[in-house]
Amino acid sequence: MIRSRRRYEILFLFWALVWQSFPTQAQRDCDCFVKGTVKDQENHLPLPGATIYIQELQKGTVTDAGGHYRLEGLCQGTYTLLCRIIGYREVRQTVILEHTAEHNLLLSEESIHLNDVDVTARRTEALASQSVTSLEGRGLDQTRGQTLGEALRSLTGVTTLQTGASISKPVVHGLHSNRVLILNNGIRQEGQQWGMEHAPEIDPFVANRLTLVRGAAGVQYGSDAIGGVILVEPAPLPTSRALQGELNLVGFTNGRQGVASVRTESSFGPKNRFAWRAQGTLKRGGNLRTPDYYLDNTGLSEQNASLTLAYRADRFRSELYYSRFNTTLGIFSGAHIGSLSDLQTVLETGEPLVKTGFRYAIGRPNQVIAHELLKAKAIYQTRQQDRWSLTLARQYDDRKEYDLHRPRNDSLAALNRPELRFRLTTYTSDLVLEHRPLGRLRGSVGLSGLYQFNIMNGRPLIPNFRTVNLGAFWLEKYRTGRWEWEAGLRYDARQMQVFRFENRVLTRRQFNFHNASGTLGGVYTPSEHWTTRVNFGTAWRAPNVNELFSDGVHHGAASYEQGNAALRPETAYNLSLTAEYRSSRWQAEVVVFHNTIRNYIYLEPRPEPMLTIRGAFPAFRYAQTDARYAGLDASVEAKLLPRLTATSKLALLYVQDLRRQQPIVMTPPNRWENGLRYELGKWGSLRESYLGLGNQWVARQHRVPANSDFLPPPPAYSVWSLTAGTVIPLGQQQRLNLDLSVSNLFNTTYRDYLNRFRYFADEPGRNLSLRLRWQF
């Protein structure tokens, strides 16, 4: 009753502040917008993916499939409008805004070099017929300090699969892990992401845009892209000699976590042909707290760094990139239980056996992870407008997992060796030709290769293996009138050799997988407000080594897992329909999808827990069936008043086992998010100030097979959040962004169905975060 009363008091105070803040004058001063179309000067074809940027406001957008752009929320005044895209030169125009303006831009190959302008466009390589959503700008700033999975949760249709409070990975349309491909700076992320409890080894601070491509995308990106693709895209390198960058400082009250990240960059050499960037992040946090107790051993420590060096000439560009990610993650000790009776007690009472206070120290069990990426890329554009690109990369992923208890042998215990260690090395190569326009036809062909091997030490869980993958693709796009058509094919062949000791004899077993992927789609733009997309795509995925051969306790997930060597590759057939509407007051998107996956692989809970010498654990076995994933994503953003904006996001998902005619375990429940944001505008020396209130409602997952889990799905829950922020100008080129947010505002006690530790503890409680970003 007290919590409910507090809730209404805070809501009343928020609305009072909103209504009292309505200005009586100048409401329309910042209600201007500029729009237009960007086309090729020679053939007048629209240019999708071009960046439009207002230099004075550091505000921009990207043209859509029809080459259209629109920048809203602008104040009256005179601005410099800049446009750039790869293969063309920047164009700069002066715009005088009294209310609205329309500026159509024609780009050519004329040599225009602006030393004082740092604007570079980036193309998202996704098909125009697929649903694509990006998180960038102020929206991305408000997620700084969170993991990649947590940051992506703000996008419609994305949730997270969690293993405790410190490990999360994105779930797209109900699919996760190796069914959602992650490209880190253009390189497919290769780590031990095959397990549910292995989070992506990526520092989100390296990106200034996170892009989600929904649906099967096997043609462009290769096998595994069944559910979608996540692009982690760094900012374009600068073209100015001036030293610039940003400093981010983030603090969280829950876990008393602190994050610091710095990025510096510049260019040098004749005509500023060389550019560089250096970036680093430090993170440290302690035990997280639910509304009623601390979660023991849930601290983390992280140290990351990256370095980029690039050279660019008129028709040739090259880039060398290196990054290293290091983290130590504590695993909630209350999930590691010594006996079946204790496990049964925890399942019945819902209270962890281990309750302690706050501490930063990370004890056993824990994970220590290091990931290195070295990338070299070269691009050459011929005079006939053919564009060649070659990308080579090496990744090394070293994962150490420490069990709850040290070895009983004192000498072994003193060595403090991990009970499980994976060392995965991956080499990838991609050669792509984007051919010159042939009338209205544009396209690309490419070859890709992968060589990977894994060395495992410690107690048996999965065997060592070696994988070779070769692929080739062909993709074409055709534009005519208001339509754009896309079609493509790809073929991949994969060979995996597995090395195991059987009766103390080393044996080798070979698996050969191969399949084709295809896509066919279209985009129809009947007006500047409406865009419709339809895409049919296929993709496939070979079973991973853990799905084939896991056999033992996986302490990172606090479970006993058993593989199935008879598993066959998955094949997905995905159909998606997207409708978008954009105007000065409304933005709306609806995505309807239907994904049929043949030979779908999933982790099926066993009827009884498993008792081992290391304790009692829930038991799972990999199984296979045919599955249907269908649903709807909808989002609406409406400008109710000149300064008040409302947003609503709905995600509905239906999952069915087609062979058994029953639901499938561990699929996301339906969810609905709503928010209000009030732009306070200019307050003295403050700029872009705002207040926001949000709510997320997650339904109970009623669609679960009978007697298929150790506990029934948790009840539905509703959590509130509060945000506020402002910008303090510090000069012509410098600004300070301040953002304050409170998640789980009312300290609600709840459990999430997609958290594998929901058997043992509640979700974290209220968390207040302060973000400071200094751009210089």
Describe the protein.
There is one protein chain. The protein has a single domain (148-775), classed as TonB-dependent receptor, beta-barrel domain (Maltoporin, Chain A, Beta Barrel), CATH 2.40.170.20. Helices cover 7% and strands 54% of the residues. It has 7 helices and 41 strands. It has a 22-stranded antiparallel barrel. It has a 5-stranded mixed beta sheet with strand order 9-14-15-12-13. Strands 1, 4, 7 and 8 form a 4-stranded mixed beta sheet that branches. A hairpin with a 3-residue loop joins β31 (570-582) and β32 (586-605). Residues 1-29 and 110-124 have low confidence and may be disordered.
Main sheet attributes: strand count, strand direction, barrel closure = 22 strands, antiparallel, barrel
Fraction of helical residues:
under 10%
What is the CATH-assigned architecture? Beta Barrel
The strand count comes to 41
Q: Unreliable segments (pLDDT under 50, ≥5 consecutive)?
A: 1-29, 110-124
Please report the number of helical segments.
7
The outline comes out as: globular
Q: What average pLDDT do the residues reach? A: 85
Structural class by helix and strand composition: mainly beta
Annotated CATH homologous superfamily: TonB-dependent receptor, beta-barrel domain
Distance between the termini: 49 Å
Gyration radius (Cα, Å) is 26 Å
Layout of helices and strands, plus pairs?
Elements lengths: L1 H19 L11 E9 L10 E4 L4 E4 L5 E7 L2 E8 L6 E7 L2 E3 L2 E3 L24 E5 H5 L6 H5 L5 E5 L5 E5 L7 E5 L2 E2 L20 E6 L3 H4 L6 E6 L10 E9 L4 E12 L5 E12 L14 E13 L3 E15 L9 H10 L16 E16 L5 E16 L7 H6 L4 E19 L2 E18 L5 E17 L2 E20 L2 E20 L5 E12 L3 H5 L1 E4 L4 E4 L7 E13 L3 E20 L4 E3 L2 E3 L1 E23 L2 E14 L13 E13 L2 E13 L18 E13 L5 E9 L23 E9 L1
Parallel strand pairs: 1-7, 1-8, 12-15, 30-35
Antiparallel strand pairs: 1-4, 2-3, 2-5, 5-6, 9-14, 10-11, 12-13, 14-15, 16-17, 16-41, 17-18, 18-19, 19-20, 20-21, 21-22, 22-23, 23-24, 24-25, 25-26, 26-27, 27-28, 28-31, 29-30, 31-32, 32-35, 33-34, 35-36, 36-37, 37-38, 38-39, 39-40, 40-41
